[in-house]
Predict the 3D structure of the following.
Amino acid sequence: MGGVMDGRVVIVTGAARGIGRGHALEFARQGAKVVVNDLGSEVDGTGAASGPADEVVREIHEAGGEAVANGDDVSDFEGARRLVESTVARFGDLHVLVNNAGILRDRMLVNMTAAEWDAVIRVHLGGTFAPLRHAAAYWRARAKAGVRIDARVINTTSSSGIYGNPGQANYGAAKAGIAGLTVIASRELERYGVAVNAVAPAALTRMTEGLGPERPARAPEAFDASAPENIAPLVVWLGSTAARGITGRVFNVRGGTISVAEGWHAGPGIDKESCWELSELDEVIPALVGKARPNALQNGLAPAGGS
């Protein structure tokens, strides 16, 4: 095995199934040494099993690649520290961190429990922050010691977070937080030679098979735009040296389609140069909203008639 990732060491969290599994296999196919991190839990985060991660490692070994399984809980600060430190101890360095671990506990807002909220925020947002924090500290220390760093972080956000999806308040809030964290981390870490980007993938996995309308039948020979493996090429490219200079961006990706998600920006505005009276806002705010672009639909596109 060899390719654009030769000599690079990669951690992929949530790498035992679905999109994460596709990442791990493609990184290995391209020559990376891969740490396959996964608890082996159910979609809702319950349970644990080492088998799924071990199977991905076995598949990489059989193809001639190098990989090791890791069962640390990345939503736990110390677990994430162990993951980063054990990777460096095993392979001598770390070049790419892919934060992909996640769970689902969907519920309409009025029915959501505090436990359902906390669990999803902890795994998605906490499970992105903790590995990123420890990896960033490792790279910063190396950079300050005079080592030239060319590292990458690829986080996983979602259209549910950056565009919005009813029934996923916890998941969407976490994914929106990850998009914001990506932009902030990119600005903090660029000086050390670390690029931080995110992808908002759309694919058919355990986490999405129950969402949305029933999918139409597809001819066996036709391209499967919903296959989770379609996400890996972009993620691997973002982890490669070719991606130098690309940082702080969020990419939508589904099938063969890639687009750049454009984040919040200041739209129409007005400055009175003094404090507003409440009565004045009766006309001002509706006028500003009328000039503003509408929020994007869940697919990231403007509603019909919007600009």
Observations:
- DSSP finds eight helices and eight strands in the chain.
- The two ends are 47 Å apart (CA to CA).
